[in-house]
Amino acid sequence: MQALLSVYNKSGIVEFSKILANKGFNLISTGGTAKSLVDAGLKVQQVQDVTEYPEMLDGRVKTLHPKIHGALLARPELPHHQEDLTKYNIKPIKIVVVNLYPFVETVSKPSTTLLDALENIDIGGHTLIRASSKNFQNVIIIVDPSDYKWIGERIESSGLESITLEERKKLALKAFQHGCSYDAAVTQYLSTVDIKDQTIETAKGNPSVEFPGEFVPLYEKKADLRYGENPHQKAALYSIPNGGGIANAQLLHGPALSYNNILDGDAALKAVREFSQTACVVIKHTNPCGLSVHQDQAEAYTRAFNGDPKSAYGGILGFNRKLTLAAATALKSVFYEVIIAPDYEPEALALLSKKEKLRIIRIPEAATQEAFTQPDIRTITGGALLQSPNPIIKDESTKNWKVATTNQPSEQQMKDLLFAWRVSKHVKSNAIVFAKDETIVSIGAGQPNRSQSVDICCKVGGDKVKGCVMASDAFFPFADSIDLAHAANIACIVQPGGSIRDQEVIDAANKFNIPMVLTGNRNFLH
Ligand code: 93A
């Protein structure tokens, strides 16, 4: 019996091949893979000894040969296939282990040239996958090293034939999916790479920020989820391999993540990465109902919680720094569904792990700080909308702000205005944020008119709103919101400006001596 091994990622291949060798398989392999196996003391037949052609064209042609593909595509039960095998001296291959050149990793590097990218488009390996998968009744195809263990154990205990037809089909399906997302990545890369006025050696592509003529997301399925937004909806999680973010986060403790947990966890991550200072957010239904920045993380948590203690129950907590034991101690008595942080002090993790229902998530390294480069994608009936992500608001952005009123905000108020402005970016439009001491006091989210959001802020904040700053994610179309702000004793306002009634709105602020700052840009979130 013959096995063909040709892998870029060589982890686990020696151990798996040893099992095959012990079971009497003839191991056939390509250059680098063969070397790893020989170095480990295994007897290997080189592909070039089977094909009687050397690997050529810098390895572009290794396994592309009828002696290999005849061995993969033959159906031994058909007499005329048997005749061909005998006539051309081809021996069937029963098991194929392949994984492809690292195309996604290669094009993710900003320094990658077009030539590097093209060299990393795997042709032969891909063809091995397709041929073996097409003939899955006769050939076992393995593309995922995590399958070595169970298949190895099975072959060892019960032989190759014990792998059932259903299992073979699943492996073939996985292999086709693997090839499919690989081709999607190539398609996306080629549709965005700019080769105008550049040599093939130097042309660089950045597939993540431009909008291609044809868009094929390069997502890989990560998990089936129990259900979707509601129990009667089916759902699954897909991720961009090595793409960071919540889709590649690690669940350290607790029950499996739900669709809504992931969605809210994403909102938490996006909200805390807006701040370079130590921050804590409480998310409910994708809106931050509490958020605070403070150099003491436990204090940031307590302030965020106190923003709206009633709504915090069952919320999603987000941190942009390693979670300390002090913060874990402060939060442990409240019921939260999920907590996300870039890391956890061991004592903090141990303490929180006592809470059975709490899902504790570690966000991949640097994800709480790095800028988004992935486009925002949203499906619509019959298509999709893409946009570049709304960038992180820099401290320097206040240099472009204009004070529209006679009264100027104080330095402390400017700090709070910038804080509230940043928060308003993460609240569903029409968004109004009341804040004090870089902490949310109340939010008005998702209302069909702006003054209604102001109203909600006043009601939810109650006595606490006195002296707050107010941020609005888009301009005030009328002066009614300023009247409400005055009645609530709001100290200062930030908003984009740009309404045809700006003057009326500014006049109202002047009438009440409320300083008002115009940012010049809008932060809708629909
Ligand atoms: O350049 S290729 O597209 N041409 C081929 O004929 C071929 N056959 C296998 N790349 C080819 N492979 C790939 O080589 C496999 O998919 C695998 O990723 C890699 C293993 O090469 P080596 O064993 O030399 O490290």
Structural topology:
Layout: E1 2-7, H1 13-22, E2 26-29, H2 31-39, E3 45-46, H3 47-51, H4 66-73, H5 79-87, E4 93-99, H6 103-108, H7 114-119, H8 124-134, E5 140-142, H9 148-158, H10 165-192, E6 220-225, E7 235-239, E8 250-253, H11 259-272, E9 279-284, E10 287-293, H12 297-307, H13 309-312, E11 315-319, H14 325-331, E12 336-341, H15 346-352, E13 359-362, E14 376-380, E15 383-387, E16 402-403, H16 411-424, E17 432-436, E18 439-444, H17 450-461, E19 469-472, H18 480-487, E20 492-495, H19 502-511, E21 516-518
Helix pairs in contact: 1-9, 8-10, 12-14, 14-15, 17-18
The protein binds ligand 93A.
Residues 6-8, 30-33, 59-64, 98-101, 122-125 line the site of ligand 93A.
Describe the 3D structure:
By secondary structure, the chain is α/β, with parallel strands linked by helices. It has three domains: 2-190, Methylglyoxal synthase-like domain (Rossmann fold), CATH 3.40.50; 251-390, 3-Layer(aba) Sandwich (Cytidine Deaminase, domain 2), CATH 3.40.140.20; 393-518, Cytidine Deaminase, domain 2. The protein is built from 19 helices and 21 strands. It has helices at 13-22, 31-39, 47-51, 66-73, 79-87, 103-108, 114-119, 124-134, 148-158, 165-192, 259-272, 297-307, 309-312, 325-331, 346-352, 411-424, 450-461, 480-487, 502-511, and strands at 2-7, 26-29, 45-46, 93-99, 140-142, 220-225, 235-239, 250-253, 279-284, 287-293, 315-319, 336-341, 359-362, 376-380, 383-387, 402-403, 432-436, 439-444, 469-472, 492-495, 516-518. The longest helix is centred in the middle third of the chain and has 28 residues, at 165-192. The protein is elongated. The termini are far apart. The mean pLDDT is 91. Bound molecules: ligand 93A. The site of ligand 93A has 21 residues, from strand 1, helix 2, strand 4 and helix 8. It catalyses: (6R)-10-formyltetrahydrofolate + 5-amino-1-(5-phospho-beta-D-ribosyl)imidazole-4-carboxamide = 5-formamido-1-(5-phospho-D-ribosyl)imidazole-4-carboxamide + (6S)-5,6,7,8-tetrahydrofolate; IMP + H2O = 5-formamido-1-(5-phospho-D-ribosyl)imidazole-4-carboxamide. This is MGS-like domain-containing protein. Residues 1-143 form the MGS-like domain. GO terms for molecular function: IMP cyclohydrolase activity; phosphoribosylaminoimidazolecarboxamide formyltransferase activity. Keywords: Hydrolase, Multifunctional enzyme, Purine biosynthesis, Transferase.
